[in-house]
Fold this sequence. Notes:
Blueprint: H1 2-79, H2 82-90, H3 93-111, E1 115-119, E2 125-128, H4 142-150, E3 154-159, E4 165-175, E5 178-188, H5 190-200, E6 203-209, H6 215-225, E7 237-239, H7 249-262, E8 266-271, E9 274-284, E10 290-299, H8 301-408, H9 417-438, E11 449-451, H10 453-470, E12 473-478, E13 486-488, H11 490-506, E14 512-520, E15 524-531, H12 538-542, H13 561-571, E16 575-580, E17 586-593
Helix pairs in contact: 1-5, 1-8, 8-9, 10-11, 11-13
Amino acid sequence: MQTKELENGISFKTKARILVFMIASIIFLLSAFIFAIYRLQNRNASSIIEKKLDSAQQLFNAQLESDANMMSAVLKSFLSDDKMKAVLSSRNRKLLLEYSKSIFEQLRNEHKITHLYFSGPERVNILRVHNPGKNGDIINRFTMLEAERSKKIFYGIELGQMGTFTLRVVAPCYENGRLLGYIELGEEIDHLTHKLSEILVLDVYLAIKKKFIKRKEWESGMSMLGHQADWNRFADVVIINEDQDILSRDFADDIIRGHYSKDINEGSMKKNGRYYRSRLNHIKDVSGFEVGEMIIVYNVTELIASRKTYTIVASSIFLAVGSLLYFIFYIYLSKIEQELKSAYEKLEQSNSSLEKKVDERTMELKESQEKLVQTSKMAAVGQLAGGVAHEINNPLGVILGFAQIVVRNIKEGDNLYMPLKSIEREAIRCKNLVSDLLTFSRTGKSTMELIDLNTTIGSALALVETRSKTQNVEIIRIFGEGLPKITANSNQIQQIIVNLCNNAIDAMPQAGKITIGTSKLDKEIEITVSDTGTGMSEETKKHLFEPFFTTKEVGKGTGLGLSLVYEIVKKHNGNIEVKSEQNTGTTFIIKLPITPTVPL
């Protein structure tokens, strides 16, 4: 009963902790998500607003350039008209008016041209076609002076005496190198604000600084143009375009006054549930003086509303998904809870038989240990046999050689023939036995032949399989299919694999895995031998293939194994490299050429 209560208490506390952590994570992620979405939408909205406000100024400048080019083209047509030159040269105001009146009316109707001047060589005005009653004054405007200086068409924005922004284009008129006078076209630029408003759907106001104009002349000019004139509306500026219909007059006043009172170029305002962004761009006349400002107002209510809507929708979706995940996780935890209860019950049942299983396992381990000792003894015998074979190989060759010489020099019926023949036969048998033992000790003298690499490696692995099993080392084969045969010595290839596998087993005293792989490269066959052992340091790798270098304890290695592997690979015109780090295992990579090699 106490155990059951303990299980239930642990299960409930664990479940509660996990669910509380999950709820906290969902809340945190939801908050971070909402914040990120809000920041992203705010950045996008700001980018759209900035582009909109920038495009207003760009479109305004582009339209000015376009109108100036159009007016320049009109003036060039004047300059090529001989009749016009004759009339200008005569300085006859009546003839000039008759010649230009219909042309001016057409330009005003089609291209918004509001001024047409004819002046003499001394810049004295002969005729204002738009205001014939005024003449005889000297024109000292910057555009006129620059046209006189450069002797070319010159244009730019200038502030007129009546307080209007005018795009003026002045062209000197010559005939046979003689200056006849000047022709000037002017365009009130306030109509450009209407184009900006229609194209970009925003409000544009042109403000002129009062210090550059006179009140009486400005009010007269506004009346002549049909515009409202309110000199006292603002302290330092007057507005010259009062026919905007997007914003109310009072609200427009608040925005414009806000820029000048706070001395800021950009601002924002909310009124009657709607949001607006505004920008103040300075306007310079052609001489470089800052004479006024263009104030751009953009209604951003829909942008802000869409940002809020997107944030709410995205957050709702995230919350719904989070809630769904919570309920799924809750159900899953309940299932795990039931499984834990079942596991506790099974654990209770298992306790009674645990001691018996431990005893059985102990007996198995003892048997395995005995087998391991026996296997180690056999391995030691094999190593000893290899050493002995190496020492008796040369003497045995001498015995066999002399026996064969003597046999050839006596007759078959001689009493010594059969004993000598027995010596020859047994010596050959011993020679073959020594040859087999030398496979594990050194390369010896051998010949090259076409071999199947996978088959050869498989035979070598069979020789180390017993030791690997006793050390709890698993050997994994990953052989490539369809590998071409190579010219090599099969015994030496087996010796390479056996050496590397034995070293790998030594590096994994607590069990592990050895992976043997083969694959075809462009002109080579690649053999990889990897283990999950202790690895080696950079200093060890530097001396790895040196003869008699070993990291094993005294009596457990001669240091010749890897140097022998290195020599065999080099004799096969191949390459060997090692990749290893401490505590991450070791991989040997051997590359042998596919093309036949010269026999050793």
